[in-house]
TrEMBL record:
Domain ABC transporter, residue spans: 12-260
The protein, known as: Amino acid/amide ABC transporter ATP-binding protein 1, HAAT family
Entry superkingdom: Bacteria
Family matches, as InterPro entries: AAA+_ATPase (IPR003593), ABC_AA/LPS_Transport (IPR051120), ABC_transporter-like_ATP-bd (IPR003439), BCA_ABC_TP_C (IPR032823), P-loop_NTPase (IPR027417)
Keywords: ATP-binding, Cell membrane, Membrane, Nucleotide-binding, Transport
Source taxonomy: Bacteria, Pseudomonadati, Pseudomonadota, Betaproteobacteria, Burkholderiales
Single GO MF annotation: ATP binding
Any matching Pfam family: ABC_tran
Length: 263
């Protein structure tokens, strides 16, 4: 994990973020804070703008208006690699796993942000490079263990079950040493039992492998169970914000998900 945050303010702050694509406003005036040590769920119906928010925060999109700050510094419009190097690391809805590589090799490859070395030193490795490589391999093995994949360490990723694959995807993100771990639908395709176990793993990562977690997830049992707070989006805007119990009791939220008849 990157240097711990000693400030009392938010670790990450989105302020009045807006993104338009031609005539479509995907995100409008969205503001929320991610506090140190917090798991924050970002939820909303399909097309609400959640992934666009992720893309704005991580530099894949430049906002049409608004700003993003990290540890009190404005990072709006910075390139994705610059954002990631500061400790804001994301997973994608599409897998970041290379199927022909083993579990260990995938996580080792995920260390590229940290373990960069010159081409010259790769061909003529001195003791420093060898030490770095040994440390990266230790770290990769450690992450395999943390994610509960030790038994599958050397298995090629294509042999993994859906649940194991989801764990590996998070493991690859952990290799980049996140302070803010941003997960986009990390439990997609899991059954309810697997999702429950996945939630337990996420809880263990907070404060050990990542300072805070921002989670987009459609599995309500998981996101309600694991999040300290939730931000609910609908049609690109913030509909509600609060603790899971308050969000579950919010009529606007129920209506957004289930329609007026259920609210
Ligand atoms: N690159 C783009 N160009 C045009 N429209 C886009 C683009 N990206 C997103 N949109 C539109 O913005 C809106 C929000 O999309 P977004 O993917 O952020 O929603 P979401 O909440 O993540 O949805 P889901 O839960 O289905 O993943 C949608 O109407 C989508 O079609």
């Amino acid at each position: 994990m990157n240097a711990m945050n000693h400030q009392s303010g938010p670790l990450l702050s989105a302020q009045k973020l807006t993104k338009t694509f031609g005539g479509i406003t995907a995100v409008k005036d969205i503001s929320f804070d991610l506090m140190p040590g917090e798991i924050l769920g970002l939820i909303g119906p399909n097309g609400a703008g959640k992934t666009t928010c992720f893309n704005l925060i991580t530099g894949f999109y430049v906002p049409s208006a608004g700003s993003v700050s990290y540890r009190g510094r404005d990072v709006t419009g910075q390139k994705p690699h610059a954002i990631a190097q500061q400790g804001i690391v994301r997973s994608f809805q599409k897998t970041n796993v290379l199927k022909s590589l083993s579990v260990f090799e995938n996580i080792l490859a995920g260390h590229y942000l940290e373990g960069r070395q010159s081409l010259l030193s790769t061909f003529f490795p001195g003791s420093k490079v060898r030490r770095t490589e040994a440390a990266l391999r230790d770290s990769a093995a450690d992450i395999v263990h943390t994610m509960g994949l030790s038994r599958r360490m050397d298995a090629p990723a294509y042999l993994l079950s859906c649940g194991e694959l989801r764990l590996l995807e998070v493991g690859v993100a952990l290799a980049a040493k996140p302070s803010v771990l941003m997960l986009d639908e990390p439990a997609a395709g899991l059954n309810s039992q697997e999702a429950l176990a996945f939630g337990e793993t996420l809880r263990k990562l907070r404060g050990t492998r990542a300072e805070s977690i921002l989670l987009v997830e459609h599995n309500m049992a998981l996101v309600m169970g694991v999040s300290d707070r939730l931000v609910v989006m609908n049609f690109g805007q913030k509909l509600a914000e609060g603790r899971p119990a308050d969000i579950l009791a919010n009529r606007d939220v129920v209506e957004a998900y289930l329609g007026k008849a259920h609210a």
